Amino acid sequence: MAMVMAMDSATGPARATGSKARIVTASRILLALGGGVAALAVALSSAVIANQVKNPGTAVALGIGPSALARGNLAFATYAARQKTDRTTAITAEERELALQAFRREPLSSAALGMIIASMPEQDAQRRSALLDVGARMTRRSSMITSASIEAAARTHNEPAFFQWLSRAILTSPGLRTAYVTAMAQATARPGAEQTLAPVIGQGPSWADTYWNAVVAVPDSLENAAKLRILVAGAPWRQQAVMDSDRVLAIRLVGNGHFDAARNLALALGGKEAAPARGGGDLLMNGNFNHAPTLPPIDWQLSSLGNLGASIDATQKSLVISAIGGARGYAARQLIHLEPGRYRLSWNLAANGALPQNALIARLQCLEDVSSPDNRSIPLTTGQNAADLSLASATCRWFWMGIGVDVPDGGAGFDAQFKRIILTSMASDGSD
Fold first, then answer.
1. What is residue 157's three-state secondary structure?
2. N or C: which end of the chain has fewer CB within 10 A?
3. Is the pTM value of this prediction over 0.85?
4. Structural domains in the chain, sorted by start
5. Which tens digit of pLDDT belongs to each residue from 51-66?
């Protein structure tokens, strides 16, 4: 008995040590498993985070971690994919539900909010407007919120908000810049649009040149485009440098019958000579050829054809015209405003030889009435000369004042040089 007790007392510590070892081993296994699970959870969460923007479907399928943003992005991605082939497609119930789930868990999801706004019926205008205000404060880079804001502003005729959102869209959506600029150019035709657009364009945004090139192609927007250009040429923006789009605008204004707008544009861009002369001054702009044309056809519009060409040599202060056999048409012309009355046209012309009869003719052509009796032609001969004319029609105020060329086929060409061509008003008693 004593021996048995002695043996038990000897083996007891050994069994205790073994139990402790097993417990330690089990703990280590559990810790390892827990660490693995935690690592897997972190990896899955990281995968969700990494894919929630570019691959939201993958992030939602993983179903772990911060998937709220992914749900909103998935709803937007599927809707946007359909829109590429069908611009009239509507948001589905499944997409709206995904967006709602995302917004409940992540109120800062602009994609989810944009989908919710876009799916709301028109009769829920008040709530829609309130959510748009929230979205506008949240982000300026959501194409969904931006397009909905543009649509809402257009529907309520809120011109400042409409153009402000359009300008934001142009800056933040490079892929849609052309479409948004085109929309802005068309919307320029709206009454009073120039007043709303002036602070936007006056700041000189990076897309301003694109806008000006677009708006001159919209006939209905031409008058307001001219008013807008005049505004930004003044204080506080002082954008008075003449651009290529200004020249196109002036030509198209005249071509569409907006004569006053064309002259006002020239005045705003520094063309003081575009104003009607007073006290016997020259009624033509740049009649002494002191500078190259700045804004035709308010200034001289010069021909550049294969058989007829004209240029102004500002250093020699002359208008040079070159023509060969068969040349016909205008060598130079400009828009001019005249009241009924008596006028005198004077000129100083030199040529490289004898000019064929009627090879050079000054033509006054009414732009408002093609049958006007005030359409006149005056043969231009070499030397210093003058001719008088009277305008009696009360229906015509705007004219082309042009230098026409007519050389018969096979006739001898010529080179001619005008040192000046001046049109002045005459007093009623016949004196200059």
1. coil
2. N
3. no
4. 47-270 (no CATH), 301-426 (2.60.120.260)
5. 444 455 454 554 444 4
